[in-house]
Amino acid sequence: MDQGYINARVRGMYGNLLGPERLRALILLPDLDAMIAELQKTPYREELETSCVWKSSIVCIENALRRHLAKTYSKILRMFEDHDETRYVRIFLNRWDVHNLKTILRGKNVHSPPDEIREALVPAGTLDEATLVELLKQNDVREVIDLLATWGIDYARPLTPHIDEWSRSRDLLVMEHALDRYYFDYARDAVQGRRPAAVALQQLVGTEIDVTNLKTVIAFLRDGVGLEDGERFLLEGGAELPTETLGAMVADGDLTTAMERLEGTRFAFVRPLVAEAKVTGRLSPVLKELDRHLDRAGASLFRRDPLSVTLVVGFMYIFLIEVTNLRIIARCRDAGLSDEELEAELIHV
User: Fold this and answer.
1) Segment 18-77, tens digit of pLDDT
2) What's 174's domain CATH number?
3) CB 321 within 8 A of CB 292
4) 184-218 residue pLDDT tens
5) Local structure of 323: helix, strand or coil
6) Inter-CA distances, 208 with 91, 266, 285, 321, 348, Å
7) Together in a domain, 197 and 287
8) Vertex 295, ends 294 and 301: CA angle to 5°?
9) Same domain, 239 and 261
10) C-alpha angle 99-124-345 in degrees, rounded to nearest 5
11) pTM for the complete prediction?
12) Alpha-carbon distance 108 to 165, whole Å?
């Protein structure tokens, strides 16, 4: 298929999204059973019917959303086949491989039950569900990495050199950073060039590196990690925040002081959030807003060039935001939060 035809099909998929009015109607429903009944009138129906046979309401919704997300992304990838632009789509899908491997390694590191770990996986990347299930059957972190290596899966390459360090410390940070570095090295290579699509995706990859680095810096400042220990975990290639600036933030040793260095950048919005976090003692809203910033940046690509692959990448972000919002609605309803509290959690594009 040529890119124009693929984009036409993806625009058709965009027309099947629920939209703000339908999300608002879901918010107003009294309970999860009513939400499931309403979602069965949407494209999520097939996955809901399968999941709700053997799951409680909240788990049914979560499982159905994950499966529908994976199915939709697989459908998009199949459209490209051997198309030159496939590498751009794979950048986005490979993020799910990294997410899934981190989730499995974290679960194995603390001896979580396999079924519990599986509930957090999204088989939307190159590692399919059968592969992830086999990885879950391994006894510990070392066996997971050994199996990846035995199967010749590329993700073993960044992990294997750090097994001994993990064995001594049982700290997964070094493993997670190795996965991040491997993913971003691939992503940066894939978007090289001067074509408009490549330039737009270079900016997006750079923004993701900035977000990842900022979250790392905030964690280091929270935990009192010094520059000497933390500098090796900063990633090169950010769109706006060079590693020198990030290293200086770590060296500041104080969140408020460090965030002043963001003034004049697109990340200046973090400063008041950190100030609020100092009062509440909760940094999670800061990290969540950084993730939202990346999601919005990705979604904005949908309206850039109607004939470019950026439309497809933008749709994938928009669809992820819809699924995320549905999960938020379900979780907030399950937790008994008010409509106002729920609304504040939603991602608006």
Assistant:
1) 989 999 999 999 899 999 999 999 999 999 998 887 677 898 999 999 999 999 999 999
2) 1.20.1690.10
3) no
4) 999 999 999 999 999 999 999 999 999 999 999 99
5) helix
6) 11, 13, 18, 16, 19
7) yes
8) 95
9) yes
10) 65
11) 0.93
12) 16
Percent of the chain with pLDDT over 90: 81
Non-local (6+) Cβ contacts of 125 within 8 A are: 93, 94, 95, 96, 97, 98, 99, 100
Instruction: Annotate 21-65 with DSSP letters as a single string.
Output: HHHHHHHTSSSHHHHHHHHTTSTTHHHHHHHTTTS-HHHHHHHHH
Q: What is the CATH number of the domain that holds 62?
A: 1.10.132.50
**Same-domain pairing of 98 and 11:** no
Residue 288 lies in domain:
191-308
> What's the Cα-to-Cα distance from 293 to each of 119, 212, 221, 261, 321, rounded to whole Å?
26, 12, 21, 18, 11
Q: Using CA atoms of 19, 20, 23, 25 in order, give the dihedral in degrees to the nearest 10.
A: -110
Q: Which residues contact 328 (CB under 8 A, 6 or more apart)?
A: 342, 345, 346, 347
User: Up-side HSE of residue 152: CA atoms within 13 Å toward CB?
Assistant: 0
Token reading at 60 = 């049914």
Which tokens go with 151? Answer: 């199967």
Residues 41 and 113 in one domain: no
H helices of 81-195, where?
Answer: 86-109, 114-118, 129-136, 141-150, 156-159, 163-169, 173-190
Q: How many residues does the chain have?
A: 349
Give the C-alpha separation, 243 to 226, whole Å: 15
* Pairwise CA distance, residues 77 & 125, whole Å: 10
> Cα(98)–Cα(158) distance, rounded to whole angstroms?
12
Q: What is the mean pLDDT of the segment spanning 249-271? A: 95
Cα 220 from Cα 232, distance rounded (Å) = 12
